[in-house]
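[job 4471] stage=fold_predict status=RUNNING
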Amino acid sequence: MDLDYSALKFWFDVFLSICLLASLAHNWVSNKHRVNKKEIDQVNTAVVSLTGRVLQVETQMKSAPTHSDLSNIYNRINGMSQDISEMTGAMKAMTSQLSLINEHLISGGKR
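[job 4471] inference complete, writing structure tokens
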């Protein structure tokens, strides 16, 4: 029985090539799954940190003044502005009266 070593070598090379391609495909599929799992874990940690930050912002926003609170503040400021204007007018009147009294005292009651 005479064996053809060149044909045997050819089919052995084909078999090795098929095994190599199968190993390459298996490694590619399994590593792709690992990379996706790592990326998913990274996204999960980012979501957890963002959730904490959103909760902090929501907590701070609950204590922020509402539109009605701001409206009340603006109304109070406007009322204070009116009061200050009235006090300014009263102070001007008092200043003119004091200058008349001072003038009267300086002149000795004579005009």
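[job 4471] summary: The two ends are 155 Å apart (CA to CA).
[job 4471] exit 0
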